[in-house]
Amino acid sequence: MIRVLLAEDQALVLGALSALLSLEDDLTVVGGAPDGETAWAQAQALKPDVLVTDIEMPRLSGLDLAARVTRDLPGTRVVIVTTFARGGYLRRALDVGARGYLLKDAPASELAGAIRRVHAGGRAIDPALAAEAWGEGDPLTERERQVLRAAESGASTAAMAAELKLSEGTVRNYLSAAIGKLGAENRVEAARTARHKGWL
Q1: Antiparallel, parallel or unpaired: β 100-103 and 124-125
Q2: What is the pTM of this model?
Q3: pLDDT in tens, 25-56
Q4: Average confidence score pLDDT of the chain
Q5: Taking each helix axis from N to C terminus, what angle separates 168-182 and 157-164, rounded to the nearest 10 degrees?
Q6: Measured between alpha carbons, how far is 134 from 57 in angstroms, rounded to an integer?
Q7: Which domains are seen in the chain, by residue range?
Q8: What is the per-residue pLDDT for 134?
Q9: Coil, strand or helix: which one is 129?
């Protein structure tokens, strides 16, 4: 049996995934978590074969969860199931060690097949999304991403500098670089563009 842990913050989706996967003869759902931190605790306790997680969740994102699992629980493989059909998210998911990336509107049989493939050591990635992911690279550095995330909230340069423990001049430099790379008019437009492409 392939032991599966589910992490999904929408209760209806979590219940539906659990019910659908439980119909498969070779899969057993050993846990379900409504947020990333709970999923991390369950993953450490249960050591599932495969973790199936959404990207956006309370307390700890699916990408951060995938990074922890890949680093600390090498026997557990990660499959991302999300609504984000964006190449930037796929690239980031693969960078943190996810082995699968599927969209929530995929048929249930596809998810079961992906879990089996990933458990066997393979990858399971939506082919159209894979083509898009390698069509346009993420031009931002990690620091530029951090500054744009802070800018999304509408914080002042001084507040962003305090939050990120940087000088105001350094924050302005990162913002200017990000705005230039994204061809944006200002920090808000740059953050919106980066978020849309899945780079934040």
Answers
A1: parallel
A2: 0.68
A3: 999 999 999 999 999 999 999 999 999 999 98
A4: 89
A5: 100
A6: 26
A7: 2-133 (3.40.50.2300), 142-196 (1.10.10.10)
A8: 56
A9: helix
